Amino acid sequence: MKKIFKTVLLLLFLNGYSQNTVPEKPLELYLLIGQSNMAGRGALDNQSQLPSEVILMLDKNNDWIPAKDPMHFDKPSAGVGPGISFAQTMLEGKNGVKIGLIPCAWGGSPIKVWKSGAKYFNNFPYDEAISRTKIAMQKGVLKGILWHQGESDNDAVKSQVYLEKLKELVASLRKDLNAPNLPFVAGEIGRFNKEDYINKIINTIPNEIENSAAVSSEGLTDKGDHLHFDSPSARELGKRYAVAMQQLLKETPSLKTSKKKPKVVLTFDDAEISHYNNVAPLLKKYGFGATFFVCEFPFKKPEEKKEYMTWNQIQELYKQDFEIGNHTGHHKNVTKLSPEDINKEIAYVEEKCAEFKIPKPISFAYPGNRYDTISQGILKKRGYKYARAGGSTLYDIAEDSRLAIPSYTVASTDKLEVRVKTALQNLKQGDIIVLTFHGVPDVVHPDYSTSVEFLEELLQYIKEKDFQVVAMRNILTE
Ligand SMILES: [Zn+2]
């Protein structure tokens, strides 16, 4: 044994490059698609000629080489684009990471040629992007897509179908690359373009496409043609892409999620006094986090008041590290309210939180689990990350909107007890289930009451199975 050890040491010594025996970390891959401003049309300068060892690009022949401008080969006019400054910004403060860029943009290409089988001059932009990305994935992990396109569709007619086509494109890319939740960032076209149809659409995508972001082109300048960014602007655009991508990656569950233990999100609605008296102590005993979605009920009888928490008690829960979520000021069905009133109802809880030094909520639960696209849009604008609905299904991160996360309602009726126990028993690796409780027990709404015994039975089961338990705010990040 000793001898073998010595031999290994000697070999390492003789080799002199022991670090070469360590397998290289996979590249972090980004696909760059769109038209000329993604390909880059900025004038080449000295900065373009400083390749870095940690930023590679897949060249025309599908070989990895140090990235430098022009990265694209769509036209002889290819120049400085956003790709390299994007990668540089992504790498700031990171060691041991290498980025692999996959340039696949085609100058002048309209969105209609970005689909399988569609030809653009002598190329098939979509199909070639997929096949080059798959080649790249032999050496790395695909982390995201950068899209800059729209100049060719920036008119009254073509822009009408743009969003539809863009949604189809993102869905196809994610499907064909087997990456259902792949971050997608689109940039505004230059504001120096004469017409302004596309940017309005680009800015709706965070609401329209899961796990996507839009990047502003404010203040960026053209190279004199009212069409293409100059080099400093192309580089600034790349930085903005990186900031948006970093934010999306933070919120994107890692690709390993499917191998993780099942996750249970515990939520308790309506600020019932039993949450303070019974639930919080029980959760502490098990060491579980949870979200309390609070509101103020209009009381039917004055004696009902004692069935609900005071704001001081809600503040106590926050101090015990539980998440305080927003359930509207007065438990209003948001689908029946004007946008103005929805805003008022949401703001009410935010203001109460501010008064009691509780952080502004980032999670919301729709009263009665009723929601629509208007309420979702308002929540998004107000900075909410997650909103809970009903539906009794698991949370499918690829399919379900983060602003309509399904949940199982729990109560101590035979039917609901069986349903939630069955759901917990059937959880597989990577599954996420959200449970909605009301009072434990619930004096005012006996139909929604859960007994302390049943809650404890569930917590005990969750503990035994070693499921991960988180508050709503950590549904994707823990
Ligand atoms: Zn409620």
Can you lay out the helices and strands and say which pair or pack?
Layout: H1 2-15, E1 27-34, H2 36-39, E2 55-58, E3 64-66, H3 83-91, E4 99-103, H4 125-136, E5 140-148, H5 162-176, E6 184-187, H6 198-202, H7 205-208, E7 212-215, H8 231-251, E8 263-269, H9 273-286, E9 291-294, H10 311-319, E10 323-326, H11 339-355, E11 363-365, H12 373-381, E12 386-391, E13 405-409, H13 414-425, E14 432-437, H14 452-464, E15 468-470
Parallel strand pairs: 1-4, 1-5, 2-4, 5-6, 6-7, 8-9, 8-14, 8-15, 9-10, 11-12, 12-13, 13-14
Antiparallel strand pairs: 2-3
Helix pairs in contact: 3-8, 9-14, 11-12
Task: List descriptors.
Rossmann fold; binds zinc ion; about 15% strand; 8-stranded parallel sheet; about 475 residues; TIM Barrel; elongated; alpha/beta
Describe, in short, the structure shown:
The protein has about 475 residues and is an alpha/beta fold. About 35% of the residues lie in helices and about 15% in strands.
Explain what this protein looks like in three dimensions.
The protein is α/β, with parallel strands linked by helices and 478 residues long. The chain folds into 2 domains: 24-252, SGNH hydrolase (Rossmann fold, 3-Layer(aba) Sandwich), CATH 3.40.50; 256-474, Glycoside hydrolase/deacetylase (TIM Barrel, Alpha-Beta Barrel), CATH 3.20.20. The protein is built from 14 helices and 15 strands. It has helices spanning 2-15, 36-39, 83-91, 125-136, 162-176, 198-202, 205-208, 231-251, 273-286, 311-319, 339-355, 373-381, 414-425, 452-464, and strands spanning 27-34, 55-58, 64-66, 99-103, 140-148, 184-187, 212-215, 263-269, 291-294, 323-326, 363-365, 386-391, 405-409, 432-437, 468-470. Strands 8, 9, 10, 11, 12, 13, 14 and 15 form an 8-stranded parallel sheet that branches. β13, α13 and β14 form a beta-alpha-beta unit. α9 (273-286) packs parallel to α14. The chain is elongated and about 80 Å long. The model is unreliable at 1-22 (pLDDT under 50). Bound molecules: zinc ion.
